[in-house]
Structures are given as structure tokens and as C-alpha cells.
Write a structure and sequence with these properties.
Arc Repressor Mutant, subunit A; four-stranded antiparallel beta sheet; 4 strands
Amino acid sequence: MDDLDRTILTVLQKNNRLSLAELAELVDSSAASCMRRVNKLRSTGVIVADISLVDSKALGKSLTVVVTVELDRDRLDFVEDFKRPMQAAKEVTQFYMVTGDADFVLIVAVEDVDAFDVFVKKKLLINPNVRKFKTMITLDCVKLDPRITV
């Protein structure tokens, strides 16, 4: 990856709806070169998705909860048995396996406390390998920026 690739990534992370001509003008390159480079960045997995970020509150998901989860056992099969339903859960918007006091951190977006209670009962309390979990209800989203400095 060279400086032009990094510049392309920086521009695309701000706005990935640019035409190739617009992108080329912004990065001082040709549209054909930009197309080849963007395609290569996608095929090599540097660019993993082209998405639109949406306001969760505008969609009625006014409650965001950070949940730390500690499993009872660290066997690989139990870890995988926890990962699968969390990856599939529509309420879970981010999911990390971490080091430290917890095994996992979940970011959960739901309509309200009642919806979160349903999530807890259907996804966490039924899992016999969940030793404990802690929740933190967010009061304000101070920064949400998925861009990576390149």
C-alpha cells in the first residue's frame, strides 16, 4: 500500500458515494487508476464493506447499552456457542472478544429498557455458560467515528 492508496482510503472513509471521476480529482489521479486501486483494496480485504451510517434514534433505537460478559468456562466450544447467537442478534451492533476482567463486550441498540430486558432474557440469561454480565446504559454518544487513520 502506497501513499495514493492511503489517500484514497482517507477520502472514501469520509464519503464512499463519490464517482470515480470525483475520487480521482480529489486524490490527483486518473479514474482508471482509482478504479484499479479501489478494486484491489476490496479484493484484498482492506475495504471490507461500503455502508451508510444511520442515526439509531431516527430508527427508534433510543437506548444503547454497553454490556460486558464473563463466561463460566473458557473452552473453545463454549466460546463459539456464545459467539454464534451474539453475531446473529439484530440488537448487537458491535461485538468484541477482549482481555481483562470480561471475555466479551457487546454494544446493544434497542428501543427502550423493556426491549433490553427481552434481549437479556432471550440472549444472555438462557446461556448456561454466561457467569455474569454488567451493563452500562449510555447517556450521550460523544463520538462515533468508525474511520481508521491511514
